[in-house]
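Reviewer comment 2.1 asked that we show a complete input and output for one of the modelled complexes. We chose the zinc ion case, as it is the one discussed in the main text.
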Amino acid sequence: MPMPGQTKESGGRSLAFLRMVCYTETIKQRAGRTPCRPYSKKRRRRVGAGHRVGCRVAPFRLGYSMPDGPDGSYRPGGLDRDGAVDFSMKRGLFMIKISPSILSADFANLERDIRKISTADYVHVDVMDGVFVPNITIGLPVVKAIRPATPLPLDVHLMIVQPGRYAAQFCDAGADIVTMHVESDTEANLRDAIERVHAKGKRAGVVVKPGTPAEAVLPYIRDVEMILVMTVEPGFGGQSFLSDQMIKVRAIRKLINEQNPVCELEVDGGVAPDTFRACIDAGANVLVAGSAVYKAPDIPARIRLLRG
Ligand code: DX5
Ligand code: ZN
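Response of the prediction step:
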């Protein structure tokens, strides 16, 4: 019988099986530090619905190694019944991922600064067009140029209007994850954009600005590998964390657990030593941090700290 949170496609697989697959894949990935490659069709069928497209390292680190509850209940990602992270369980197995934003790096020394974050999980790349947000940053040539500089997956956050126009090109340039704002185009066009990313064998995600309600992710939640909740108004690094967004993070964590438990939940903006814990407690499993990482005197130590 399928357990709560399981989809029809993943319902036939036991958690023990999923853990074994994910653990093995993670160890292989870490040992070789190979660039992220999508699953084969066969493997995607075996691992489940949320990983039609995905990085081999993802499922284990999403928390599938967590034990079930004492009563045998299913706890995706080591979450308690309200959807918050349960720290009473074996901590350390539920792994928080850190995605440092290179918006805070020295653009004249990008390669050097990307090497400085080699202990992180992703590299967060903020793409801004000066229209969707009042700032212009990185584009396709820069993504292409930094791709060989790191084996880490490139987590590309598109803050541009009609992102579907460029989604496939960012994949070709080396993006492993492409996230697009729900406010940036029509639902039909965004669905099409998500499909374009998947057609390239990459992970797709949707992003919500602070003023956008949690329900805005509902049309996409079953079809994406990541949901990103902005904890600042998009456009600039170094802004103050909006703690009122934690209500939304909790609400989306609940929706993810119910509808697509392997989807990652990322937060972005103002994540720092005094705010990261609230994000984890609310159910985020990927933390973007720009200034908090690059301004730290010891970057690897800061990354370790933010992992909790
Ligand atoms: C803001 C960007 C963020 C930003 C985060 O629009 O999406 O990724 O770089 O920077 P910090 O962590 O400094 O708030
Ligand atoms: Zn960002």
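The beta strands are 97-100, 123-128, 154-159, 177-181, 203-208, 226-230, 264-268, 286-289. We note this here for comparison with the apo prediction described in Section 3.2.
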